[in-house]
């Protein structure tokens, strides 16, 4: 594994207790004398996405992409946006309730007028058919 003791990275900005920060000079490190016994090929065994050259087959890349898609895909029905769309907020103010009832009455009134006029015509036509079947000649 990569040892941070071998290649120390000095902090170029250090802060003091008064809250101000001072810039420290960059330190050059001679790695030839400090890390003579470390094999640089085994420092980092992980596959870093920042590596310049990585030899992966097409199948491995497709599997990695499938796994990423599965991990990053969200169920849209469980998102807060879709849940809030289905739930209306409760408003207990009298003015808002009156506005709601007024709107419902205004929507229902034309529908009721049309339906009731059709029901009256339906009753009249059914009574005429019934009289004709019975042989009655009463005017409708």
From TrEMBL:
Bias-annotated ranges (Low complexity): 14-25
Keywords, ordered alphabetically: Membrane, Transmembrane, Transmembrane helix
Ranges for region Disordered: 1-25
Annotated protein name in UniProt: Uncharacterized protein
TM annotation in the entry: 98-123
């Amino acid at each position: 594994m990569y040892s941070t003791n071998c290649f120390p990275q000095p902090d170029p900005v250090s802060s003091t207790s008064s809250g101000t920060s001072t810039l420290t000079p960059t330190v050059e490190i001679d790695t030839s004398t400090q890390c003579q016994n470390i094999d640089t090929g085994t420092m980092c065994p992980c596959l870093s996405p920042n590596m310049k050259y990585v030899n992966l087959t097409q199948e491995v890349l497709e599997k990695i992409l499938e796994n990423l898609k599965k991990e990053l895909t969200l169920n849209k029905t469980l998102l807060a946006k879709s849940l809030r769309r289905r739930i209306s907020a409760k408003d207990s103010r009298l003015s808002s309730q009156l506005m709601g009832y007024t709107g419902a009455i205004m929507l229902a009134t034309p529908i009721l007028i049309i339906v009731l006029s059709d029901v009256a015509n339906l009753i009249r036509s059914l009574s005429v058919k019934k009289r004709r079947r019975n042989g009655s000649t009463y005017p409708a």
